[in-house]
Specification:
Helices cover 34% and strands 24% of the residues. It has six helices and eleven strands. Strand 4 and strand 5 form a beta hairpin. It is α/β, with parallel strands linked by helices.
């Protein structure tokens, strides 16, 4: 599923979407995983995918896995390109399989959806982009990560509806506190802020 730059309709509640922005080379996955699991232990219904690597001494800096926060199941999403290669690449078919985790979490109306990364595939309108904009349009809070050199494409996709966070646990915690405060105001009858909409359009498979 890919998208270009036209808007879609969004749900009435305010959209709570945040991306943790980090520089190339900085590890972020363990921080996001710890944040998600701490929230889950406190009673927040957290679903989605977090990223981890294994066997860091391999050619492609370790196989890349996505872990289902709900079940603990792993999806290997990297492809080793062979002995002469100095890197690895993401397997779109494996990403498509893992996307079912996000769809299930949305169907269960989780309190927070974690999407491991807004990466190269998502920047091209593929990968997990469809699930991200579907969740945002449904009013489900989303937390993801993005490398700083991909911010322009992220802004093209989400417009001004998303918060950009620094790579620090306290920034994620403060963002979640504000999300919860906004939900409490809605329950008290305070009219929600109307978002500007998401800059995406379905263009086909």
């Amino acid at each position: 599923m890919t998208f270009d730059g036209s808007a879609i309709m969004v749900a009435d509640p305010p959209i709570a979407v945040a991306a943790v922005c980090y520089p190339r080379g900085q590890g972020i996955n363990d921080m996001v995983t710890a944040f998600a699991r701490n929230l889950a232990r406190s009673g927040v219904r957290v679903g989605g995918l977090v990223q981890r690597r294994a066997a860091a001494d391999r050619r492609c800096a370790g196989d890349i896995f996505l872990a289902d926060l709900g079940t603990g199941a792993d999806f290997r999403v990297s492809q080793d390109l062979g002995r002469e290669s100095e890197g690895c690449r993401i397997d779109p078919a494996a990403i498509a399989e893992a996307s079912g985790v996000l769809r299930r979490a949305m169907a269960e109306a989780v309190d927070l959806l974690i999407v491991n990364k807004f990466g190269k595939l998502e920047g091209q309108g593929g990968g997990l982009a469809h699930e991200m904009v579907t969740a945002a349009a449904a009013g489900i809070p989303i937390l993801t990560t993005i490398r700083e050199d991909r911010l322009d494409r992220w802004n093209d996709l989400m417009g001004d509806t998303a918060s950009i966070l620094g790579p620090a646990p306290e920034e994620m915690a403060e963002w979640w506190r504000r999300v919860q405060a906004g939900r409490a105001m809605e329950r008290c009858g305070v009219p929600p802020q109307v978002p500007s909409g998401l800059g995406v359009e379905r263009t086909g498979q």
